[in-house]
Amino acid sequence: METMICRQCGIPKPLNAFGVSRNICTACTSLKYRLRLRFQFLEMYGKICNCCGQSDPRFLTLDHVNNDGASHRETLSSDTMPALSEAVKKHRPDLYQILCYNCNMGRAVNKGLCPHKDLSLQEYLDKVTEISKRLNTKRDPSVTPVQAKAEYDKERKLKKLLSFMKPEELEAVLVSRKGDTR
Ligand SMILES: [Zn+2]
Ligand SMILES: [Zn+2]
Ligand SMILES: [Zn+2]
């Protein structure tokens, strides 16, 4: 009988044991299996968000400890099954942790550090307000409308980015634009 090795459980199974997902057997794609894996993971890694302490399992998700913001978003959008089973097979708290969706996304948009662990909200708002004030450049009468438009577009793009950038990064942008900051 022709068999195929399941990418998930590693067991050779007859071809009819595979469904729509052609390299993972139906037992491994079943809801029951996924749920069990998820609860095993939560049980093993402490059952609460490692950042804010959220304990409702409906909010909890697997987080890759070492990933920074960018690669983090990728793992969130792709299938987390391989990571989940890996985390359960080998207990590796140095690689995997539980975070709630909020802290997980917070980490992703804040370059790897959840805002809970960064500046306080007030400190953040103060910094951004201070920096955004410096983004308003004075109009030079010799600037042509075309140049003014380009400048305006640049400002708008920067302002759109403000909420997703850390104050240090904003500072760096300002430094690189020395000419028009004051
Ligand atoms: Zn399988
Ligand atoms: Zn949390
Ligand atoms: Zn957090």
Describe what this molecule looks like in 3D.
This protein is mainly alpha-helical and 182 residues long. It has two domains: 115 residues, no CATH class; 60 residues. Helices cover 48% and strands 9% of the residues. It is built from eight helices and four strands; from the N terminus they run ββααβααβαααα. The strands form two sheets. The protein has a two-stranded antiparallel sheet with strand order 1-2. A hairpin with a 6-residue loop joins strand 1 and strand 2. The longest helix has 18 residues. The model has no long low-confidence stretch (mean pLDDT 81).
Rounded mean pLDDT score: 81
- Biggest sheet layout: 2 strands, antiparallel
Bound molecules: zinc ion
Q: Describe the strand arrangement of the main beta sheet, using strand numbers.
A: 1-2
Distance between the termini: 76 Å
Secondary-structure-derived class: mainly alpha
Shape: elongated
Instruction: Give the strand tally.
Output: 4
Number of helices: 8
Radius of gyration: 24 Å
Q: In percent, how much strand structure appears in the residues?
A: 5-15%
Total number of domains? 2
Low-pLDDT segments: none
H/E element sequence? EEHHEHHEHHHH
Helical fraction? 40-55%
Concise summary:
By secondary structure, the chain is mainly alpha-helical. The chain folds into 2 domains: 115 residues, no CATH class; 60 residues.
Give the topology.
Blueprint lengths: L2 E3 L6 E3 L11 H4 L1 H14 L15 E5 L4 H9 L3 H9 L6 E5 H9 L11 H15 L9 H18 L4 H10 L6
Antiparallel strand pairs: 1-2, 3-4
Bound molecules: zinc ion (3 copies).
